[in-house]
Each structure stands twice: as structure tokens, then as C-alpha cells.
Amino acid sequence: MAFQEILDQVGSLGRFQILQIAFLTIFSSITFCHITLENFTAATPEHRCWVHVLDNDTVSDNGTGILSQQDLLRISIPLDSNLRPERCRRFVHPQWQLLQMNKTSGNASEAETEPCLDGWVYDHSSFLSTTVTKWGLVCNSQSLNSISKFLTMTGMLIGNLVSGYLTDRRLILLGCFLMLAIADTCAALVPTFLLYCALRFLAGMSTTGILTNSTVLIVEWTKPKFQAMAMTLSFCSASVGQILLGGLAYFVQNWRHLQLALSIPMFFLLLFTRWLAESARWLILTNRYQEGLQELQRAARINGVKNYKDTLTMEVVRATMKEELEVTKTKPSLRDLFRAPTLRVRICLLAFVRCTTWISTFGLLLNIQYLSSNIFLLQVLLGVLVIPANCTSLLTLNYLGRRISQLIFMSLVGISILATIFVPQEMQTLRLLLSTLGGGLGFASVNGALTHANELIPTIIRATALGIIGTAGSVGSSLAPLFMILAVYSAPLPWIIYGACSILGGLGVLLLPETRNQPLPDSVEDVENERKGSRQAKQEDIAIKVTQF
Hints:
Layout: H1 2-10, H2 15-35, H3 38-41, E1 47-49, H4 52-55, H5 69-76, E2 89-91, E3 113-115, E4 120-122, H6 131-135, H7 143-165, H8 169-187, H9 193-220, H10 224-235, H11 237-251, H12 255-269, H13 280-285, H14 289-302, H15 308-311, H16 314-320, H17 322-327, H18 334-339, H19 341-365, H20 375-399, H21 402-421, H22 428-456, H23 462-483, H24 493-509, H25 524-548
Antiparallel strand pairs: 1-4, 2-3
């Protein structure tokens, strides 16, 4: 469109854009850490009931000082169906007769048991403390662990609703970053689980504002030719975030210290935000011409453009953007988004694809403890694989197009998730391989979904429309941890849902138009005219075929 002509004069991928992408990538990397933080701060270690004869520091009257810990465990805790100590039950009285019986015989199943009335004993080999050990979120309270994750994802949902109405890109991004820093710093210090959940809800609200506006700023400062590459480079922030989180969690095994280690540095990053630029395209289209011109001249100066003050003037901007400015004099409302038939269908389809993509991706990312016994290694591997996955995504987006690329990636994600169901827990290497592959392909499909959505929505209502589409994604990410509660009834059921959603989302992409190497639409009329133009082209093509015949 017309803005591309101005962007060519400024430099569509120069030093300015590179610095902008690098700065936003740092913001996004830290944000991704906070999204999946509860993989470690809320991890559930191995546990069993606390029993007096086994865990009391003094030797009991029954002469247990001569017995081993294994013997004391056997007479105190019943075994489950896999002959492992029960996590949530204990014998009412020590079963001394079991010391004279083999492991599989006897009347142990007939002995009276009770819940863990005196608390639990946790395995501290991987985690010194987590929110689970702090507030006892196991056994009858284990669903509260999923509820805390659900509230974080629900916060992302509310954040999308709020940011959809607030269109100022830079201001919202910085406000959300400050809010995330404050919320998660306070979450590490609160004394109650209720306050912790409330602060994690606020943290979730802020993450969507950061990620959405970072994406929009990157897209609106680059040409269509470089947008897929810019988005891929930006999305590598997920890789940096996952690797940073996995490595830091391995060395910082106290959940409060880990939370603070990721939150406090955010306050120092805010000192450098004065170099972050607002979208000149959005400023001009919202009648803030002088501010838009200043941002364009600033970009030209950083990119080394000579005589930019002579070529970039208010008259040039107004003349170049004349048609777009006439169209955007009346600011579209939320009702206008769904009044235009083509745009309405497009937004609904994008919302469906986003929701299904987020269900499968967050289903993997938030439940890695169920996929591998070494979650530190899996977290780092997921981060490492993001880079080659996004490079592959970049190649396929540019050569196969947006639609086919997303179909391939999302189908493979679904297949890898469904395949994990049939791999037993003993085959940890194969489970680790499938989980890593699914996670990497999930990031590639998210990259494709974000790129495609940004290219299909007109500039004047892009932030609002992406807020609506992001809301659908947040609904999916909120449902992802809740589906894991269904594992109580059937262990494979959550994974079947995750896999099926990914495959359905891939098929839904085929109903959207291709945007490879196409200019960004600036107004609702641009989107509607695309449909008319394609319809006329089809009619002309039919007429040519009939004439030739």
C-alpha cells in the first residue's frame, strides 16, 4: 500500500529495524519465561504421607531404631497397583506383620488406611521448595495446582480483551512490562495461595499486552518481503526464554528465589525503553501526523539515509497517504469489524485457528512434567529446538506459503502428541524425543499463525482485531490446563484432545487466503476489495477459457 513507499525511503530493514527487533526480542524472551514459570515453581515432587514411626526425629518405643528406612516405609505406607508407595494414604497403625511377609502376599490390602492427616514428606532431590510443597497442593488439593495455571491463562484472556480496546502500541507494551515485573515480584513474597493466584492472574494479563504489541510493532516497521523473517527472528525469543528458564531453574531450586531472579531484572530494562519507537503507520492513520513524521525521520537518521529532512516532509506524507487517510477519517468501531462480510469470516477463522493452536501448544508447554522425568532437560531442549523450527518455518512460509506451512506443522504436532499416548513411561528417551519434536513444531505453527494473522488484518483496526483473535487464543490456553484434570478419569484423554485440536486447526487454515509477498491491507475497504478483485479475476479467467474453446 502507500505506506510501503514511505518505508522504502526510510529503509525497510536497516539498523533501526534491527535494533527495534532486538529490543522487543529481549522483552518477549523474559515474558515467555514468566508464562511457563510454573513448570518449575509449581512442580509436584514425589511425595508420601508423614508418619510418626518413620519421620519423627526420636526413636519410637517399638525399637524401630534397628529397622531400616525401607522397612519402616513398608509397615507405614500401603503400596499402589504398581507396587509403589501410595502418595495419599497411610496405615492407621503400623503393620509389623508385613516384615515377615513377601511384597505381594498377605493382608496389607485389608489393613485400615487413612488420608495424610499430618501432611506430606516430599522428595527434595530436584526442587528444594515449590508452591505445591509450600501450600500442600497434592492429593485432594491437587486440582488447585491446575487452577493456578488456569487463572494465569485467564489473565491472558482478560489482557487480550483490554488491549484490544487500547491501540497505543508502545505505551501499552511498557505499562504491561512494568505490571508483569511488579506482579511476579510480589507473588514471590505473598504468604497465602489466594494472593499468589491473584498476582499470577495480573501477570497473565500483562503478558498478552507485551507479546501482541511487540508483534505489531515489528510487522508495521518492515516490508511484506521481510515480515516473515522479522517475525521468525522475533519469535526466537521463545527459544531464549525457554533455555534461560530451564537453565536457571536447574540451579535455583527454591521457587521464591527463581521467581525473583526473573522479575527484578525487568525493572532495570525499563530504563532503556526510551529508544523504543511507536508505529509510524499507526500514528499517521490515526491523524497524529507530526508524531508519525518524527518517528519516520528518526528511523531514516538511524538507517543512515541522507537528506531525509528534505524527502520526508509533512506534505510528502499527506500526499502519499492521501487515499488511506480519506478512508480512515472515520475510526472503525468493534461493530464495523463484523459488519464487513469478508473481514467477519476472516476474523472468525483466524480465531478458530488461534484457539486450537494455543490449546495444543500450551497443553504441551504447561504439562512437561507428565512427559519426561527430567523436566530441566526437556525445557532446554524445547528452547534449543525453537531456533531450527523457526528457521524451517521461515523457509516454508516463504516457499510453500502461509496456508500449506501451517497445515503441515499443525498436523505433525497433533501426530506427535497422539503418538506419545502409546509410548510407555519406561521408554523415557522416546517420550523425550516425541515431546521435544511436538514442542518445536508447535512453536513453528504458532509462528505461522501469528505471521498469517498480522498480514490478513488491516492496519487501522489491527490492534483491535488481533485483540479479538488473541482472546480466542487465550480461551484455548486457559482450557489447556483444565483439560489435564480429565486425566483423573482417563490418563490419555487430555492428550487426545490436544492432538485432535492441532489437526483440526491445520485444516481450518485452508479456508483462509494466501498472503505470501502480498502488501498489508490498511483499511477495511482493502480487505473487501481483495474479494471483489479475486472474484473478477475468476470471471475473466472463465471468459478467457470459454473464448478459447
